[in-house]
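Record type: monomer structure entry
Structure origin: computed from sequence
Chain ID: A
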Amino acid sequence: MEVLERLVFLDTETTGLDPRLGHRIIEVAAIEAIGRDLTGKYLHFYVDPEREIDAAATAVHGFSWDDLRGKAKFSSIADELMAFLVGARVVIHNATFDVSFLDQELARLRRPPMSKRDVIITDSLALAKEKFPGKRNSLDALCDRLGVDNSQRNLHGALLDAKLLAEVYFSLTRGQGVLEMPVPEPEKAVAAVDYLLDGPAEVHAVIEVSVSDEMVAVHQQYSERLAEQSRIQRAWGPLQPA
């Protein structure tokens, strides 16, 4: 019986860009999927950062410290959050950023960092850069490229961004199904073979076609370009003129 992987899509919002400068998490969301299906289970917390929020950060997510005063402190949600992540592949877009903030919050509580926990961190930004080298791979850019509806994302928010991340990740890891070619059903294929074998003699006739030097050159250039693009050595030899 196939065991489906447990995934958790995680996102945070923060007071600024650098936890080493004392910036804190103000919002965190984690959404569960089993295999490629969301289960409906999730965690979502607004967090009192116990400090001011940079104006540039407020412009991104819309929160000021006044909005979050009186919300839970990270110390009161840490155990529940970490328990939710145990045993999962945790997918984060630009994982280095979010993990650095989680590690800093855990360090304040004298708890082990993410690298010491039973989780596998997968950075969807790294996956996107590998799939789309040289292109913009922000979450918004990927939503546009992959056809994920992000029309509600006027401001960044951890819960909405985690939901969008799940859709983006499933699209990024969908495989090569779009490259598959239709295969005739066996009955039809057999019927075609039977016709060729049992049909009139002229069906089996070999028709010779003259090939000019110019056509050979064009074919050679095409096959070499195809081999270079696919990085697969051609199994057929060069076409020879008649």
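Annotation 1: Residues 176-207, 229-242 have pLDDT under 50 and may be disordered.
Annotation 2: The longest strand covers residues 25-34.
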